[in-house]
Amino acid sequence: xxxxxxxxxxxxxxxxxxxxxxxxxxxxxxxxxxxxxxxxxxxxxxxxxxxxxxxxxxxxxxxxxxxxxxxxxxxxxxxxxxxxxxxxxxxxxxxxxxxxxxxxxxxxxxxxxxxxxxxxxxxxxxxxxxxxxxxxxxxxxxxxxxxxxxxxxxxx
Length: 156
Prior knowledge:
By secondary structure, the chain is of the alpha+beta class. It has helices spanning 26-37, 41-50, 57-65, 74-84, 88-99, 111-120, 125-143, and strands spanning 2-7, 13-16, 19-22, 102-106. Strands 1-4 form a two-stranded parallel sheet. It has a two-stranded antiparallel ribbon with strand order 2-3. Helix 1 (26-37) packs across helix 3 (57-65) and helix 4 (74-84) packs across helix 5 (88-99). The protein starts with a strand and ends in a 13-residue tail after the last helix.
């Protein structure tokens, strides 16, 4: 499985308050930060609660002991990030790793990415999805040896 749209700047890196770490699964991220901070699961959860999130030490512990089958709720992801003192992106990367998603680096500063953002930024989600479906269909035509017009081809 592949998760698209992952920024190359965060590829395989997790930025915590104490430095940079290689991307790991969610259990390893929680336990590594727990050890670095020298805090119990309950005290970590307390950090999330101070930041305005709902999280218990038990819930945090369970994230380290049970294999996750799906993305945690957005509020849980934000709470775990606050508890661990890392960016939300670091928790999402760890969840991706836990679920077995392959990271595909994308340079969000690349001109083609910027062009896509500029062209679709004011579109509705449904319109963006329709455009993406169209592009995917054209790519499939090209991959299948079809007659789709290739960018830069003139007079074909």
